[in-house]
Amino acid sequence: MEEKNSVDILIDKAKTDFLAREKIFHEYRPEIKSIASSICKRNLSWDNDDELSISLIAFNEAIDTYDKSKGMKFISYARMLIHNRLVDYFRSELRFQHSSLNVVGEEHQVNEYEKRQAFDEHRKKQENESLSETMEIFDSSLLDYGISLDDLVKISPKHRDTRHMLMKVAQSIVNERILLSKLKQSKRLPIKELKIYTGLSRRTLERGRKYIIALALILSDDNYSEIKNFINFPNAEGGEKL
Q1: What is the mean pLDDT of residues 125-130?
Q2: Exposed/middle/buried for residue 209 (C-beta within 10 Å: 0-12, 13-18, 19+)
Q3: Is residue 203 domain-resident?
Q4: Residues 219 and 157: beta-carbon distance below 8 Å
Q5: Last residue of a domain, which of 98, 118, 143?
Q6: Chain segment 147-196, per-residue pLDDT in tens
Q7: DSSP class of residue 110?
Q8: Which of 108, 84, 82, 83 is nearest to 96 (CA)?
């Protein structure tokens, strides 16, 4: 029961926290491959098989739509979605094969919905692969600051106001070249300068240190633009950018 509760808690957090979501993807990657291979009845390769990319898309959908109150375990729910998406993919592929034979007849024509679905799946596949590569680079960069993705998942602020406050601190670092330069050269948060610049206490800045550094790195590097899309940054009016 304790293990199940811990999974449910992480799933709930992953619905709004990209770091928690990335951790789940990392932990369940072997399970996703096992499920997909079992459905396809052959061993699949991450480098060569579209079925695994489709399974990742389905797993991502499972995170967004999972409802523990329904009584189904998360992995069972994810397996069901993976199965359904792969079946849809097989049917779509079969119709495309029929269409390529130029056989006349409505039963062999690929409708516009299926074309769009195939295009969307291909686009999502490319986005997932690109995001995965970006996260690996980001993870490597964090290690220079003594931070890991697991650290960020654990210390990510639960309260919206706290997140916004730390996001604004990170944005302040990016806006001030001297602060950003000092951060990147020393690999340490410039607490003394930030106290003056933001008016926040040392204790507050120390507690949010890892989160602030991670956000400053993301905001200051265009290579992390994909990660920015998973984070709600405060806009000029102080609200959220969805």
Answers
A1: 64
A2: buried
A3: yes
A4: no
A5: 143
A6: 888 888 788 887 888 888 999 999 999 999 899 999 999 999 999 999 98
A7: P
A8: 108
Q: Rounded to an integer, what distance in angstroms lies between the CA atom of residue 44 and that of residue 38?
A: 9
Cα 11 from Cα 20, distance rounded (Å): 8
- Same domain for 100 and 65: yes
Classify residue 152: in a domain, yes or no. no
Residues in the chain: 242
Radius of gyration of the CA atoms of the chain, in A: 22
Tell me the two tokens of residue 3: 């293990």
Q: Encoding tokens for residue 232?
A: 């709600």
Encoded amino acid at 12, one letter: D
Structural domains in the chain (count): 2
Q: With 0-12 CB in 10 A as exposed, 13-18 as middle and 19+ as buried, what is 151? A: middle
d(CA 182, CA 68): 45
The single residue listed with the structure tokens 């951060």 is 183
72, 137: one domain: yes
- The pLDDT confidence band at residue 102, using thresholds 50, 70 and 90, is very low
